[in-house]
Amino acid sequence: MMSETNKLVAEVRNSFGKGVARKLRAAGRTPVVVYGHGTDPVHLSLETHPLSLIIRQANAIIELDIEGRKELVLVKDVQKDPVRQIIEHLDLIVVKKGELVEVEVPVHVEGESFSGTNALLELNTLRLSAPATSIPENVVVNIEGAEEGTQVLAGGIALPKGCALLDDPEQLVVHVVVPRGSAADEEADAAAAEEAAAE
């Protein structure tokens, strides 16, 4: 279900260029381009504050009101100023209800592995095919009580209804290990001592 916050009124842009974009941002609006389904790109601007709240969600869907016409779009690319972290520009892609889209969904690890072990997250996101209007926020991997040597592969993770894995199912996602920092550190110290003695 889409929350009210994900509905935005768009204004059509007919003038372009850096100066125009700067003026828009100064007025609290963000330039966006909507691509989709074989149609020409549509240049719009959206109010920056509500937009910045929406794009904190991974794979956010927005319902745009473009001069009275409703359009569902998926946030595809966000360009930010690297220093000030201001949103400079957004690419949006048109989606239809019932359509499948390709998305990257964060992996969320739950539970505590066996005492004395650490769970290493080898893959932060999974590439999925998901229904455009019900993209999962994350994919959960439960490692409660998992022992040393436990490996969770992409293909072994339960996916939400309607989703399919696009990554290699043999790809390692989570690996449970016993930290061996101390032994490695001792070896490094011994090697350093030998080098010092050789000099």
Automatic annotation (TrEMBL):
Task: Give residue ranges for domain Large ribosomal subunit protein bL25 beta.
Answer: 101-180
GO MF terms held by the record = 5S rRNA binding; structural constituent of ribosome
Q: Does the keyword Calcium apply?
A: no
Annotated keywords: Ribonucleoprotein, Ribosomal protein, RNA-binding, rRNA-binding
Source organism superkingdom: Bacteria
State its role.
Answer: This is one of the proteins that binds to the 5S RNA in the ribosome where it forms part of the central protuberance.
Instruction: Provide the assembly information.
Output: Part of the 50S ribosomal subunit; part of the 5S rRNA/L5/L18/L25 subcomplex. Contacts the 5S rRNA. Binds to the 5S rRNA independently of L5 and L18.
Identification of the protein by name = Large ribosomal subunit protein bL25
